[in-house]
Amino acid sequence: MNYDERLQNVTVLGAAGKMGSGILLLTAIEMADLSLKPENKGKTFCLNAMDVSPQGLSGLMRYLKDQVQKVAEKKTVLLRKLYEDRADLIENEEIINEYVFDVMNIVRPVTTIESAYNSNLVFEAIIENEDLKTKIFSQIHENKPGVWFFTNTSSIPIHILDEKAKLNGQILGFHFYNPPAVQRLVELITINTNSDEMVEFAKTYAKNLRKVVVTSNDKAGFIGNGHFMRDALHGIHEAERLAGEMPLVEAIYAVNQVSQDFLVRPMGIFQLIDYVGIDVVRFIMNVMNPHLPEEDLHSDLLDKLFDMGVKGGQNSDGSQKDGFLKYERSKPVAVFNPETKEYVGIDQLKDKVESFLGGLPSTWNPWKTVNFSKGQKDAMLETYFSELLNLKTKGAELARKYNARSNEIGNFLVSSGVANNADDVNTVMLTGFYHAYGPINQYLK
């Protein structure tokens, strides 16, 4: 079965979710483009959008149509070539509308697992539940032994899913980053029993989607969450330690500022935890922990907030839910105090925390300025961190400690066999997390 044939019948499990909807969009466009190739004219392409929520599927179809419209408007030159045999399509608007129709015509919203029994390829983007995943995989595999599974798991070892579902190597990890339609990174996790054909298909598919592929070895959490979960725990533990010197609410704000401003990151660690979701971060740690007997990836503080119903994450419109921080128009305006169960305005914390941390180096620039300074970024970082290295303030001290821990985590991912090399670790953090520099660096040494 060649590449085009494999993509003639595909199912996305969890299609109405945040990750599933993006995977569905990318796959629908790839399948539609294949169906328009002269050699595929007359062949049927079917993409099952499977989800248990009919309401979710209804919203998904609206989202899909809107996004395909935007995609079509950006590639009218290519579409003219794809539709060059259609004399009835003259104006750009006609071509765009026809393309939207062709993409939508491929997608079948379904609520039953039986719809996947005819698929050659199944993308799985359901909740991070090992037992549920293996149950669904087993059921589909028993009815379609030749199907390939591409799981979007961000933490569960692939070989465990393979063994529990008895898939005989017909599964690999294809971890999109959120949101899949925007993020360029994909972590590819293979196991020894994968066929060469399956791995090559995965690489070709990723290339056609214009993704940056980093191969991670099959260890719980892989590279992305392997670094993020440990990095997050360091931030949490630092805040708890600083709570011996100041109220916890001030300590949380202080560490968030250090991890964002002092380390020149796109957002502070507590804002990043909120973005992913306190409940999701806590859950991923719980998934990873049994596979890491020499570590304890657990936070009592995350448990405490979760039990209080403070979970973060995003609303359906993409706006940020309140978590460690409270947000207005997606910008932090307050910090949650777990002791009083109330939010304290940043304007009440700022002066005291900034006085405690001390000022930023004179050569500091915000992340956005540094990250998008083509040809100057490395020099800007070298100059900034050189000054930070010798700055004798609490903020500089915390930043040096934070960077050292981040560096240690990165090197551990290589030495423990999660990542093949330092470049792969850095690529994941640069591309998937939008860091301005990789964790394995020579800064602040």
Per CATH, which architecture of the largest domain?
Answer: 3-Layer(aba) Sandwich
N to C succession of SSEs: HEHEHHHEEHEHEEHEHHHHHEEEHHHHH
- How many beta-strand elements? 11
Largest sheet: 8 strands, mixed
Q: Work out the strand percent.
A: 5-15%
State the fourth-level CATH superfamily of the largest domain: NAD(P)-binding Rossmann-like Domain
The coarse overall form would be: globular
In whole angstroms, how far apart are the ends? 53 Å
Protein described:
This protein is α/β, with parallel strands linked by helices. It has 2 domains: 3-216, Rossmann fold (3-Layer(aba) Sandwich); 224-432, N-(1-d-carboxylethyl)-l-norvaline Dehydrogenase, domain 2, CATH 1.10.1040.10. Helix content is 50%, strand content 12%. The chain has 18 helices and 11 strands. The chain has helices spanning 3-6, 18-35, 54-74, 76-82, 92-106, 130-143, 158-165, 196-208, 224-242, 248-262, 269-276, 278-288, 300-307, 346-357, 367-371, 377-389, 394-415, 422-432; strands at residues 9-13, 46-50, 107-110, 121-124, 148-151, 171-176, 185-189, 212-216, 325-328, 331-337, 342-345. The protein has an 8-stranded mixed sheet with strand order 3-2-1-4-5-6-7-8, sandwiched between helices. It has a 3-stranded antiparallel sheet with strand order 9-10-11. Helix 7 (158-165) links the parallel strand 5 (148-151) and strand 6. The termini are far apart. The model has no long low-confidence stretch (mean pLDDT 96).
